[in-house]
Amino acid sequence: MLHIVNKSPFESTTLESCLRIATNGQGDVLLLIEDGVYAVTKNSVAGNMLHEAMKDVKVCVLWPDAEARGIQDRVLEGVKMVDYAGFVDLVAESDNVQSWL
Amino acid sequence: MALEVNGKTYETDEEGYLINLGDWDEDIAKVLAVEEKIDMTENHWEVINFLREYYNDFQIAPAVRVLTKAIGKKLGPEKGSSKYLYELFPYGPAKQACKIAGLPKPTGCI
Amino acid sequence: MNETTGGVDEGDPGLVKKFMFVNRKAPYGTIYALEGLEVVLISAAFDQDVSMVFMDDGVYQLVKGQHTKAIGMKNFSPTYRALEGYDIEKLYVEQKSMEARGLTEADLLVPVETLSSADMAGLMRSQDVVIDF
Questions:
Q1: In angstroms, rounded to a whole number, what is the distance separating the alpha carbons of residues A78 and B16?
Q2: Beta bridge partners of C94
Q3: Distance of alpha carbon C26 from alpha carbon C33, whole angstroms
Q4: Catalytic residue at B109?
Q5: Tens-digit pLDDT profile for residues C76-91
Q6: Domain-located, residue B86
Q7: Looking at chain C, which subunits does it touch, using at least 3 CB pairs closer than 8 Å as the criterion?
Q8: What CATH class is the domain A2-100?
């Protein structure tokens, strides 16, 4: 299952709720887009939470959104960068998708 | 649009549904029924009153399928059929009965 | 997800998919809750396998004792009790969300099934379509 989060983890608890579900999955994938990309920042509260979750969940970040926000040089290790085509591939590969609002 | 009953004016939407549910009374229902070309009988009133009650309980006008089932439960299976309801309200129980009952158009009714 | 291909058999009851609506917002601060409820009611017309999940602030949609007169908004909480008549009977709440808000099933307007986060994850994975509100 693919989970998509587009809210900053510092403004909303959406990422936390998503991880509560996704970490119980078997090979769930998390894609961070829009303001959601701030979560991948190294040495941040959200980054630490994400680091912990990465034992269970594969984490991807939409590169154009990360780059636009200037966080490209501070991305947590192990996070996979995807472009728009990669976004499409993730959706196509997944049995189902949840876009967390 | 507006509806005139006993010298008072009531607001309706562009399809003739009453805007303020609280405005409704039996006199208004009779005028609405005339506009729908429905000759109100006891059976008609039974459905209208059922709809008012349903709305009061749930705050929505039921979809036809749901109305049919609920009426069958409350008033007996012979009345819980779309045939029966369409005989009373030929242009659709949702469209006509809800309008006469002073309710909004049912949710899920296009 | 499997799609049927080719001609449609006359006697085919139609393809039934599993739809899950996930409600995560409190009722009156935004329009999401009301819009989500309307979508669910409309979806009932299509005879699909529909379930509703309430988690995070979404559980507040179901609490008893909502009185909206003074804020001038429609109280749509009684409508959740109409879902049964629409054959929508699978309502789930997430245990953590309930606990965090000091709520129990007795505080809610309708019968629900309380699920752990792990069970919720399993249920979500079994769906064909998951839509958030």
A1: 62
A2: C115
A3: 7
A4: yes
A5: 999 999 999 999 999 9
A6: yes
A7: A, B
A8: alpha beta
